[in-house]
Design a protein that fits this description.
Blueprint: H1 21-33, E1 38-43, E2 48-51, H2 54-61, E3 67-70, E4 73-77, H3 104-107, H4 113-122
Antiparallel strand pairs: 1-4, 2-3
Length: 129
């Protein structure tokens, strides 16, 4: 999360040329958490989109980004907490923690909240809800 935005988010990122969404998810997980010790359990049916509010885009990224279209995955972590190293690459996060899925919508920035709520509902059975 960029400095100044006090919210949490799940690891996410772009898809490189020639990469499948699942391959990108695993690569981004490794880049952002320092480990790829996970397996994909489920993939979202649809792509989910959000717009970044103009004032946030201007102040954080010089207006270069307007939103994202995302494919989401549920992963089962196969490692230990000691495998997680958010400083292993260019740090994109200042801290990390495990939280219950139901807590996520209250932690995420408002413009992403609807996506998180929809994903929790879609992935309900995989999340033990």
């Amino acid at each position: 999360m960029p400095a100044g935005l006090s919210a949490w988010q799940l690891p996410q990122g772009g898809i490189d040329p020639g990469e499948s969404p699942a391959e990108a998810a695993m690569r981004e997980l490794a880049e952002e958490t320092g480990t790829d010790k996970a397996e994909i359990v489920a993939e979202s049916r649809d792509w989910h989109c959000y717009d970044i509010p103009a004032e946030v885009a201007r102040s954080r990224w010089g207006g270069r980004f307007r939103g994202q279209r995302q494919k989401w995955f549920v992963m089962r972590f196969l490692g230990d907490d000691s495998d997680i190293d958010i400083d292993a690459h260019d740090a994109e996060f200042g801290d990390w923690k495990w939280v219950a899925p139901a807590e996520l919508p209250d932690l995420i920035v408002g413009f992403k909240r609807a996506i998180y709520i929809a994903l929790i509902e879609e992935f309900r059975e995989h999340l033990g809800l």
